[in-house]
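ok, trying the design again with the full structure, not the truncated one.
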């Protein structure tokens, strides 16, 4: 099989590309605006891997790359709530325009399936738990709106042009290669790098807000299962359990062996208060079930950062 991974130099995309390259030909497309070349350096030169430096906003590039592909894994995006609040026009151009480009290029090239990254941010602060795919969306940020628009385009392209589209609503993904240095970095790599540097983690809010974390290896597995199955539509991809940020900080402190009381700052605009997924639809549709516990994933992630001098 020949697969395309957009955003393939990013956190999730590079883990996915590495997994696929064991058995398939893989084309990685990434403009390296947030993806990192070092994430795929070990794959460049691999006989089954081709790297194209370019953007999902470049339709001609996508059409050229997609010819002969058996499936598209669309991970390329601006994947940050705070950045989307600061730069909604850029977020719309990449996340909405880029997704339409991916879908159109797939249609033009006769690619039968697109599996794309979406987000739990679509649910907003709806007080009903756990979150189920049939719930009405209540997005709180330009990022969430842009991902919801991508899902709608996916359904339309599936209905009109016969492309099988699957949109995976990622909850809080963590693991090796997650960039801690961006001002928009996710909470776990930020916590880990501060703890390994002997500094206290910073929590925005009171720390009692909850997240449903899932290890990146399970997200990779979900993508592959979705591509290999025959499902279409939207699916939650999460651990199906939640912990507070205060509890997360305590667990990471213990694993890292660096005990420090968190510092607290103001709540960030666009952040949701709580998060918990119902993952039964993905389980029933293509057999998804997370294999890693949060603590197992945290231990592997801390070890990865420690081996690299905490980056």
């Amino acid at each position: 099989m020949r697969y395309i991974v957009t955003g393939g130099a990013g956190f999730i995309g590079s883990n996915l590309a590495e997994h696929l390259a064991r058995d398939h030909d893989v084309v990685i497309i990434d403009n390296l605006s947030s993806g990192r070349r070092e994430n795929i350096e070990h794959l460049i030169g691999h006989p089954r891997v081709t790297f194209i430096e370019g953007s999902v906003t470049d339709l001609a590039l996508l059409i050229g790359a997609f010819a002969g592909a058996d499936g598209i894994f669309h991970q390329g995006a601006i994947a940050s709530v705070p950045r989307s609040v600061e730069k909604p026009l850029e977020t719309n151009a990449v996340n909405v325009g880029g997704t339409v480009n991916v879908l159109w290029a797939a249609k033009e090239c006769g690619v039968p399936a697109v599996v794309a990254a979406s987000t739990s941010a679509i649910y907003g602060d709806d007080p009903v738990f756990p979150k189920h795919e049939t719930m009405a969306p209540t997005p709180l940020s330009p990022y969430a709106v842009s991902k919801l628009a991508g899902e709608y385009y996916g359904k339309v392209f599936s209905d009109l042009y016969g492309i099988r589209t699957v949109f995976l609503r990622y909850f809080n993904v963590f693991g090796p290669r997650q960039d801690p240095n961006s001002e928009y970095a996710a909470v776990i790599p930020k916590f880990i790098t501060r703890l390994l540097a002997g500094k206290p983690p910073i929590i925005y809010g009171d720390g009692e807000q909850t997240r449903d974390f899932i290890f990146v290896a399970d997200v990779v597995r979900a993508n592959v299962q979705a591509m290999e199955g025959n499902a279409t539509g939207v699916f939650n991809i999460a651990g199906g359990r939640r912990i507070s940020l205060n509890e997360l900080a305590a667990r990471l402190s213990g694993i890292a062996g660096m005990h420090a009381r968190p510092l607290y700052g103001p709540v960030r605009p666009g952040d949701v208060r709580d998060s918990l997924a119902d993952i039964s639809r993905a389980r029933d549709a293509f057999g998804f079930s997370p294999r890693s516990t949060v603590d197992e994933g945290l231990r592997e992630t801390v070890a990865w950062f420690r081996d690299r001098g905490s980056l």
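Keeping the full-length input from now on. The first strand starts at residue 2 and ends at 6.
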